[in-house]
UniProtKB/TrEMBL annotation:
The keyword Transcription regulation does not apply. The keyword tRNA-binding does not apply. SUPFAM superfamilies: ARM repeat, GTPase activation domain, GAP. It comes from Hermanssonia centrifuga. This is Ras-GAP domain-containing protein. Pfam families: CRAL_TRIO_2, RasGAP. InterPro entries: ARM-type_fold, CRAL-TRIO_dom, CRAL-TRIO_dom_sf, PH-like_dom_sf, Ras_GTPase, RasGAP_CS, RasGAP_dom, Rho_GTPase_activation_prot. Residues 1-119 form the Ras-GAP domain. It comes from the Eukaryota. GO terms for molecular function: GTPase activator activity. Keywords: GTPase activation, Phosphoprotein.
Length: 1315
């Protein structure tokens, strides 16, 4: 819209834009409105499920009363409340739009268009908008489809909850709601109870009493009682400082106290005497647990009442920089502050300035505002996100020494990154600006958070680089381009998304590598005493093995003290008066650690964190000792995931942080990797399944964070080996299935192009490790179906490591079964043969691998074209089925595997990701070989229709794979299935499209449906053509459109029309086999049908049945030898008299020269016209001087003798072939036949009157063309609807308009089938 040329606009009102071209304005407006509508329609996959749930509720409620208004109600909710306001004012959704009146007017008009579409009404009141009604008519279907889609609600899975893009609910909202209902209880109750009293008169009194309004009011009353709030609204004191009793008492009690501990919290600024005084209150430095709040308040009052300030107004800058949870002053104490403040001091308090609040500070202020009902101590308030912004409020000289560190931070050079989204614990995606400075990260939200109706501020998080333990890319989250910033100790793990994440991660790592130490003035201390105990315990244990005797004794004393504090078994380790330090401290410490772990499991998470944090500062021997005494604590992790345990952690955040610490410990130190595996992960493998599942999730996340092929991923895979169990394999498989499902949210043509590929690749690698050589065959049997499903979807794509991993999955299964049976005599030779086959080059290619020599590394192999790729997938599916058959111990288990695999494939086949869909349909075609119902085929056809609508000539794999699947499924359809005849016509339409890419599959589908219907006896009653044409009636609307383009009529001649569209494959080297097979199937099935109905005579010399003639003629170019022609006659069920030596030479390789004219059974002019026209089309692609040409011209010569008027009519279509034959042929029989055709044509009186002294007979033909003779042949065929029979059908070039039109019609044809 911003690129609109000068002089253009979006206004259609002559009164507002009198000098503009309104027709052009209308075009511009419709173009932009179409773009908006496309964006809206494309948003359906990303539509939040919470909105879907609301829409579904609205739709159901309205549909019960006003069914016709359901979509209007949905439109009023979604468009009127959300979409239209955002279009009119993009700033509402944080989109910056130029304040251009032309654009604003355009946005207003677009909103009107969109809203009218949502309401399903035309413009009427505004005359200048009436020309847009045609545009509304064209787009109403799309908007209705959008409303219909968002009306469908499926609850999201627990692990895939939608993100929430607004402020998270907290207890402050409870306070607001409580106060609202408490204040307006009378009015709300009256409204609800009056609604209940208006119930239908048919309801009983009891029903009225329990009506919706009554129940709602009772629920509100109960909630008000249960959540009774203690009033914190302060009563502001009217007393001055000389009158206020509480104030005087406070000042008296603390007058002799030392205030130096709080001087750093409240610091005066240096300001001119003629200006208000300024003070800085550093809230981030407050530590509520140790701070004497009354002492602080006394010091504040004392300072602002000092002689230097007592006569001056003052301002207070509240420094919220890095505000921590430990600084939150209790609300009841703040109420005391409000009430103890004397009125004369409050009158001098002019301005409260908030500086750099973070998200926690804003939530705290919002809670304070609502609890105090907006009471304020200052006359005015300002909020600032930087010190520079704050200093603009002061015109004179001012010095703020307590904010020097803020000034230093803001003056640091750094890099700014926008277009970044931060995701917090509430699954909110917040747009932020991230600044990477020398000592810290500065993260500022782009959208302000509301504190009250009149105050809002952007949140700014300051993260010192020293607090960052790691930063890396991740591909496991909700979005692509995600990266993680992990803070040291129990800090929050922050998730970000940015299209420039590589640059952001590089900048942070660079700054962290060269950072300078800067002291951030935030008071650090342990959050709980348990942290202190864990730290002291670790210090004592790690140093008790020191070579320094004094240090060993001190460590022992420390351990004794800790045990005494914990009341460990009621006594210290040994009597304190008889100190003895063991010579070998290792066993002693391990034994002590085991007992303490059992005695004080609550220390587990803190102890693990302390040990891991100090590992890097110790020697190798000490690190090994640390791991040994850490090992007994691992078993306690189960306490924190068991909901019935008193140590259970509801959020699981600390438990997951602990697991991440163990993972980082494992990945950081390769020198003691084996010890870590033994002491940590072997113990983890012994935990309960709930704990192991959570740990597995973190391990998988860590592997994906590293990426396929990274050392991080490989180390995690190695760690997985220590946890190998049925539960582990199932968990990885479940995660992999979910990720496969996510690919449909952002479809791609191939899996490596998908945003979730890295996760798929890494999980595949973990699958390989987790499934390696289980202990017995029964464990292997559990996940055979899942494994086959993964392999069929991922094989032969991506990096070499992924391909070899998928290959390894199959080989490992065979190895496991083979080894488990090697001790017995039950080893199947088929398993041995399979293992040998898996090493063959042919099978390796199915997995996308090649190996030039037996000792060389694997290299990638990719099929050269789409057909070979699909063939490889089909061969792979057959290999997996063969593997199942070999390793299955019973038919019952084999059936279970196939059923499970079938369910997995079915769920994948109907996704919208082509990369998954293509492979799933190939596998579905292999598995769905029996008991297929119409419902499954219906789903296939729906997916096929969608694929046709998105069809692209450059990538045909999706359409072709679905066709293959439908073709294989068709024979398994139940008898009398309504789909079989319609599938036949679908195949015909695809063949008619002349698209070489789908020709083979379309031919195969036609043969499959034809043979299936024949086997089911569908043609016994009426024959082939009538039965199939009856099945076509429902499709006439679109099928006839295709027929009209090609100039064919199946009603006039079924065999010639069908042969004409199939024959083009006969001339194609790669398609000849399939075209011939289809023609012979049609011939065979039609012969059987004709025999059932006695259409043919069995006596000697009887001609071919008329229903077969088109197929017979089409097969003649393929039957030029004696053996081939004899086979053709046998397939046509002809009498043996036609196979005598007089007609057919004895030797099979001998060439035949002519087909007896009587054999063809041409008894009327129409048949002769069909044969002549079809032969004319065949001759256009014939070689010109071969047996085929001889046979065909001989037939034409016979027709010339019997039906000269037909030859005269069709001569203009034959003249090019005749001229070419005269010029190139040397066969006397051919020349004789051509001469006869030419002679008969020239004897027509209509033709001879046009000869005007030509110098040659052939030129006469060319001159005659100007007199409309070509039209005579066309008209003759046109009367029969067969004017296209003379066309030499060829395959169309990709992208031609006619091909695109036919493809669109075929999509509509499929829609008609599934209706």
């Amino acid at each position: 819209m911003t690129s609109l040329p000068p002089g253009h606009g979006y206004d259609l009102d002559p009164a507002k834009a009198p000098n503009q071209d309104f027709l052009q304005n209308q075009k511009d407006l419709e173009f932009v409105a179409s773009s908006f509508l496309e964006i809206i329609a494309a948003s359906v996959p990303a539509f939040p499920s919470m909105f879907r749930e609301i829409c579904a509720h609205i739709g159901q409620a309205v549909n019960k009363v006003w069914p016709e208004a359901k979509f209007s109600a949905l439109g009023a909710f979604i468009f009127l409340r959300f979409i239209s306001p955002a279009i009119v004012n993009p700033a509402l959704v944080d989109v910056d739009a130029p304040s251009d009146p032309i654009m604003r007017r355009g946005l207003m008009n677009i909103a009107k268009i969109v809203q009218n579409l949502a309401n399903n009404i035309f413009f009427g009141k505004e005359a200048h908008m009436l020309p847009l009604n045609d545009f509304l008519s064209a787009n109403i279907v799309n908007v209705t489809r959008f409303l219909s889609e968002i009306n469908k609600y499926t609850p999201p899975q627990e692990e895939e909850q939608d993100e929430w893009l607004d402020t998270a609910y907290d207890d402050t909202d409870t306070i607001v709601l409580h106060r609202f209902f408490d204040k307006h209880a009378d009015k709300v109750g009256k409204e609800l109870l009056s609604a209940a009293s208006k119930a239908s008169e048919t309801e009983t009194d009891e029903e009225k009493a329990t009506g919706t309004g009554k129940r709602s009011w009772n629920a509100i009353c109960n909630a008000l009682v249960e959540t009774t709030q203690v009033s914190l609204i302060p009563n502001m004191s009217p007393f001055t400082s000389s009158e206020h009793p509480e104030y005087l008492d406070l000042m008296s009690r603390f007058s002799h106290r030392d205030t130096s501990p709080v001087h750093h919290l409240f610091v005066p600024a240096v300001t001119p005497q003629d200006q208000p005084a300024v003070f800085v209150l550093s809230l981030a430095k407050v530590q509520v647990e140790i701070l004497d709040l009354e002492l602080l308040l006394f010091y504040i009052f004392k300072t602002i009442s000092a002689p230097l300030y007592e006569k001056r107004n003052f301002e207070v800058i509240f420094d919220w920089t890095g505000f921590p949870p430990s600084a939150q002053i209790p609300m009841h104490w703040l109420k005391f502050v409000y009430e103890i403040l004397p009125s004369n001091i409050r009158a001098r308090f002019r301005t409260s300035r908030t500086l750099i609040p973070n998200a926690m500070a804003l939530r705290y202020m919002r809670r304070l505002y609502n609890l105090t009902n907006g009471a304020s101590m200052a006359s005015s308030h300002t909020l600032h996100t930087s010190l520079v912004e704050l200093l603009r409020c002061y015109s004179g000289d001012i010095s703020l020494p307590s904010l020097s560190y803020v000034a230093e931070q803001e003056s640091e050079p750094g890099d700014d990154f926008d277009e970044i989204f931060m995701r917090n614990n509430h699954s909110m995606r917040v747009p932020v600006i991230l600044r990477v400075a020398q000592s810290h990260l500065r993260i500022t939200t782009m959208k302000a958070t509301a504190i009250s109706n009149s105050m809002s501020c952007r949140a700014t998080e300051i993260i010192p680089l020293a607090d960052i333990s790691d930063i890396y890319n991740v591909a496991t989250g909700h979005d692509a381009n995600e990266f993680i910033i992990r803070k040291i100790r129990h800090g929050t793990t922050l998730y970000f998304t940015s299209s420039t994440r590589d640059s952001v991660v590089k900048a942070i790592r660079s700054a962290k590598g060269s950072m300078r130490n800067v002291q951030i003035p935030v008071f650090e201390r342990f959050s709980r005493l348990s942290n202190v105990i864990a730290t002291l315990l670790h210090i004592g244990m790690v140093n008790i093995g020191s070579d320094n005797e004094e240090l060993r004794v001190a460590s022992y004393d420390l351990l004794c003290s800790v045990c005494t504090y914990l009341d460990f078994e009621g006594k210290p380790v040994v009597p304190t008066k008889s100190i003895f330090v063991p010579g070998r401290a290792g066993p002693f410490v391990i034994q002590l650690s085991e007992k303490l772990a059992s005695f004080s499991p609550q220390l587990t998470l803190d102890f693990i964190a302390e040990v891991a944090a100090g590992m890097e500062k110790t020697s190798v021997s000490q690190r090994i000792a640390c791991l040994q005494y850490l090992s007994p604590w691992i078993k306690n992790l189960s306490h924190f995931t068991n909901p019935t345990d008193h140590l259970y952690e509801q959020s699981g955040a600390k438990f997951r942080d602990c697991v991440r610490i163990l993972i980082d410990l494992t990945l950081a130190d390769q020198e003691i990797h084996a010890v870590v595996q033994k002491c940590i992960w072997t113990e983890v493998g012994k935990l309960d399944s709930e704990s192991v599942n959570t740990i597995l999730d973190e391990l998988m996340r860590a592997a994906v964070d590293g990426g396929i092929g990274s050392q991080r991923c490989e180390l995690v895979a190695d760690t997985m080996a220590s946890l190998t169990s049925i539960n582990v394999r199932g968990r990885i498989g479940s995660r992999l299935r979910k990720v496969m499902g996510k690919t449909s949210s952002k479809p791609s043509k191939s899996l490596p192009e998908n945003v979730h590929w890295n996760e798929i690749a890494c999980l595949t690698r973990l699958c390989l490790v987790a499934n390696y050589l289980p202990k017995n065959a029964a464990h292997v049997h559990l996940f055979i179906a899942e494994g086959a499903h993964y392999v069929s979807l991922v094989a032969g794509t991506g990096q070499i490591l992924v391909r070899t991993s998928v290959y390894g999955l199959v080989v490992n299964v065979l190895h496991s079964i083979y080894i488990s049976k090697s001790t017995s005599d039950s080893v199947s030779p088929e398993i041995q043969a399979l293992l040998e086959d898996c090493a063959s080059p042919e099978v390796l290619k199915l997995f996308g691998l090649a190996r030039p020599t037996s000792t060389s590394d694997y290299v990638a192999y990719d099929p050269p074209n789409d057909k070979q790729q699909l063939d490889s997938l089909e061969k792979l599916g057959n290999l997996l089925v063969r593997m199942m058959n070999c390793i299955s111990p019973s038919q019952a288990l084999l059936n279970v595997w196939r059923a499970r695999w079938m369910s997995l494939v079915t769920s994948s086949a109907f996704q919208t990701c082509p990369a998954i869909q293509t492979r799933a349909f190939i596998t579905l075609g292999i598995l769905a070989t029996s008991d297929v119902d119409d419902d499954l085929l219906y789903q296939m056809l729906v997916a096929f229709k969608t694929a046709l609508e998105d069809y692209d000539d450059s990538d045909t794999t999706a359409v072709v794979s679905m066709l293959r699947c439908i073709c294989k499924v068709a024979p398994s359809l139940p008898p009398k299935s309504r789909y079989l005849p319609q599938l036949f016509w679908l195949a015909v339409a695809l063949i008619q499209s002349s698209n070489v890419a789908v020709y083979i599959e379309a031919i195969q589908l036609m043969r499959a449906t034809l043979d299936t219907m024949a086997q089911q006896g569908a043609f016994k009653e009426r024959g082939v053509a009538p039965t199939l044409l009856d099945g076509r009636q429902h499709l006439e609307e679109f099928a006839c459109q295709i027929d009209q383009i090609l100039g064919l009529s199946f009603d006039s001649s079924f065999s010639f029309s069908l042969s004409a569209v199939i024959f083009k494959g006969v001339r194609h080297q790669n398609l000849k086999e399939y075209a011939e097979g289809a023609l012979r199937s049609l011939l065979r099935v039609t012969v059987q049908s004709c025999s059932d109905h006695s259409h043919t005579e069995d006596s000697a010399g009887s001609p071919i049945c008329a229903d077969l003639l088109g197929f017979f003629i089409a097969l003649l170019p393929l039957s030029t030898t004696s053996g081939a022609f004899r086979k053709l006659l046998q397939e046509a069920n002809m009498d043996v008299s036609w196979m005598s030596e007089e007609i057919i030479p004895v030797e099979d390789d001998d060439l035949i020269s002519r087909v007896p004219f009587a054999l063809l059974g041409i008894t009327d002019g129409a048949s002769a016209l069909y044969v002549t026209s079809f032969i004319s089309a065949i001759l256009t692609t014939a070689q010109g001087d071969d047996t085929e040409t001889e046979i065909l011209f001989t037939i034409l010569s016979d027709i010339a003798n019997g039906y000269p008027e037909v030859i005269s009519t069709t001569f203009e279509s034959l003249q090019d072939q005749i001229k070419d034959t005269f010029a190139t042929a040397s066969n006397p029989n051919t020349l004789s036949a051509v001469s006869n055709v030419f002679r008969v044509a020239m004897q027509d009186s209509r033709r001879t009157i046009n000869v005007r002294g030509s110098t040659s007979t052939l030129s006469t033909v060319e001159e005659a063309n100007g007199y409309g003779l070509v039209r005579s042949h066309y008209n003759a065929l046109d009367e029969l609807g067969m004017q296209g029979l003379t066309n030499g059908y060829q395959f169309m070039a990709a992208g031609r308009p006619q091909s695109i039109t036919i493809t669109q019609w075929i999509a509509q044809l499929v829609m008609k089938i599934i209706e």
